[in-house]
Amino acid sequence: MSGYSRPLTPAEIASVEDAEIDFDDIPELDADFWREAELVRPDRTEQVTMRIKRSVLDYFRAPGKGYQTRINRVLESYVQARQRS
Q1: Which of 19, 26, 38, 62 measures 20 to 30 Å from 72, CA to CA?
Q2: Is-contact 45 68, C-beta < 8 A?
Q3: Domain with 40 in it
Q4: 76: nearest Cα among 33, 35, 53, 43
Q5: What CA–CA distance (Å, rounded) separates 34 from 54?
Q6: Reduced to 3 states, what is the DSSP secondary structure of residue 85?
Q7: What is the C-alpha separation between 65 and 24, in angstroms, rounded?
Q8: Mean pLDDT of 19-45
């Protein structure tokens, strides 16, 4: 696969055949690479129902899409801070 003068779009990347991809500059993953590897299991989310003050919900919804993720990040940072102390 030859170099490109611009980044490829996702559709263009998807259309590239595996045989055309040059893997020469990618190092082998040998035993040294895996020696320090650690399995990290995803912390899955769970759907729950909870009551939140309207003012708090309005605050997290104001920036737009993703308010549940923002709320979860705040709660997660609180838990991590409490675990450190």
Answers
A1: 38
A2: no
A3: 10-84
A4: 43
A5: 49
A6: coil
A7: 41
A8: 88
Q: What are phi and psi of 26, to 5 degrees?
A: -100, 120
For residue 3, is pLDDT > 80?
A: no
Helices 54-61 & 67-84 angle (0-180, nearest 10): 110
For residue 26, how many other CB atoms are within 10 A of its CB?
8
* Assigned domain for 4 exists: no
pLDDT of the residue at 9: 93
The residue type at 1 = M
Residue 44 in domain:
yes
Q: Judge contact between 21 and 1, C-beta under 8 A.
A: yes
pTM reported for the whole predicted model: 0.52
Domain presence at residue 2: no
Give CA separation, 56 vs 50, 64, 73, 74, in Å: 13, 14, 14, 12
